[in-house]
Amino acid sequence: RIDHPRIADLDLHLVSPQGTRLLLSENRGHTNIAYGMTLTNETEALMVFEDGFESAENDFIDDSAMFHSGWELDSGEVYAYRSGEVAGLRAHSGVQFIEMSGLEPGTISTNALTETDKTYRLRFAYAKNPDADEPLEMKVFVGSVTNLTVTASIEAANNTLAWQMQDVVFTAKSANTQIRFQSLEPDVYAVMLDSVRLDEVTPANFYAVFSELENLAKASMKFGDAPYAKEEEQVLFSGFEGAPVGLVKTDDIIDGWTVLNKKVRISQNSSAHSGNYYATLSEDISQGNQPVDDKQPGGLIWEFETGGDVRSSPAIGSD
């Protein structure tokens, strides 16, 4: 039984005594991309381009030339705002931003120079038009490798914009990657867009993000053996081999172990788990040290100094 306030977000990593490794994982709410999505921590970022629509004409844009930059209007219209033009609406960066709809839904795109098989990060700011009653959606296309739906739903106070940041990390498939934003809203209200930036990133660490959409995974996940489950990495540091047979006194040191309680017996028999020797531990504490934990009869029987962290897997038998 597991008691946890967010049980659906737990990862359980189970390792059997034989070394079989299982991962039980479910994550609700982090991402809708898919199980197996790869994220990066970058150590270096080289900017490819950055555009916050500062050069666009402050008007309904129905022609690509009105951007005065590398953006193309593929369909419909968009509207370029200036901060303060409408009370409460301010740009994420600079003084201008766009709404992905004018008198009809708009689609815009730009082409970026990329290198095949290099890793890039697209970053942009988006927000919900505060006049819209429902969440607003926008499609983001990055070449042929990414098709993402962004939902703007956060309401800000006093009719202002609650800007959010979105990162899209991808591997370029060609020397020219198209980046395209498309409004999914049929009405005049649409997602606000600003601070679009593309960087080439040098990945330092890769890790997987899990969701419940296993059917979208590109490849299955496999795990190697647990390090201590590999035969060549298991270290038997105490098997009591060669120890004197018979009762052992308190404070005697046997095969590196200090005996803290009576009675302990070393036996030589073919029934040993490994080798021919084994130890029998007694719960008699009448003449020994008091138990460390009074809930554990017999208390501490062995003490072993290792000088470091040790994972112990003793073989235990009973009469």
Automatic annotation (TrEMBL):
Cross-referenced Gene3D superfamilies: Galactose-binding domain-like
P/Homo B domain boundaries: 2-32
According to the record, the residues making up region (Disordered) are 288-319
List the Pfam families: DUF642, P_proprotein
In terms of InterPro entries, this protein maps to: DGR2-like_dom, P_dom
Q: Could you state a single Gene Ontology molecular function term? A: serine-type endopeptidase activity
Q: Which GO terms describe its biological process?
A: proteolysis
The DUF642 domain is annotated at 69-197
Keyword annotations of the record = Hydrolase, Protease
Q: What is the protein's name according to its record?
A: DUF642 domain-containing protein
Recorded source organism is marine metagenome
